[in-house]
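Late entry, written up from scratch paper. The run itself happened at the end of the previous shift, but nothing got recorded in the book at the time, so transcribing now.
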Amino acid sequence: MLAGRVLSGTDGPRKGTVRALTGRGEPLGEAPFTIEASQREAKASFDLPLEIRNQVARIQIKGERSAGAVHLLDASSQWHRVGIVSGESREEAQPLLSPLYYVERALSPYADVITPNERNAATAVRDLIEKQRVSTIVLADIGKLVAGTQEDLEEWLGQGGVLIRFAGPRLEQGGDELLPVALRRGGRSLGGSLSWSTPQPLAPFEETSPFDGLEVPEDVRVNRQVLADPTVAMDAEVWATLADGTPLVTAAKQGEGWIVLFHVTANSDWSNLPLSGLFVEMLRRAIALGPSQVGPRRTKKAPRSRPARRKPVRPPRSPPSKPWTVSDSWCRRRCAPHRSHRINSPRPYRAPIIRPAITGQRARPVRSTS
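Output as recorded:
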């Protein structure tokens, strides 16, 4: 839903209409507003589908000719359609422990969040790609993907999708190829009676990270994480690390899209990061890497069968012509044997060569001897 706040310099009551327009000035919707008595502001909400809402370039108060009555929207204001899938089976009994709870609460004010009712992860992912046309898919604690789901995600990533994965008990037992880094089997425990280490805070973000500029809260702590396998070389980027240098968020480019891995769970089991405001801003920047929507799947067209090239039909060659002869009909009847007279071309005429005469002598023509 697109909403705008209308402010007035004087007290109400006052009524009006706010219009939503495209970049070319085409109207997309209208929303009325009412400023009550002794009030100076009101809210105008547009109920538009996501496809139409992302076409809104500016909103303005109808009938007002002032720069203050116009608000321009940029690409950062576009909403993304996000689908979230979890591997948990206890979501209905304890919703506050569900990984979907924190992700949905963090993204709902800024994106169109879709949670499939299908419990089968493979079917849920296929519905999100083919029917909902989401631009971002969040997989919370889903271990190894089946072959068909992995192929669907690879094709979807090639068109610009963003795949965000969270670690958990299932993923730490083994992952698949749709991860930015290869993972060690088993997680790393920080703190506790059997560990010498203590829970780690987050390190400041580097300039090359998309999270650069976000303030890191001092009270965020990580108790458990999955570790990347240093023996497997992979072309991945590290967007966030802990204070000891171990990666917290890694990413890798896949086609036109991105694969992003949070090395902690999406709930508060392994860290209190999902309880902080930093978690919301990190997810917002991650989903902004992709388009607002990913188009339908490209079907592979069968190669066209080219018709066989026909050889040009050439007329049959005529036999070599015989010398031109003239046969006299009278001679054929009366002369014995038949005589044919071949006509030969006459010899070319050559002009006489005139040599220059010597002084005192007359020039005389010299006939050619040929």
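The chain is about 15% helix and 25% strand.
(Scratch paper discarded after transcription.)
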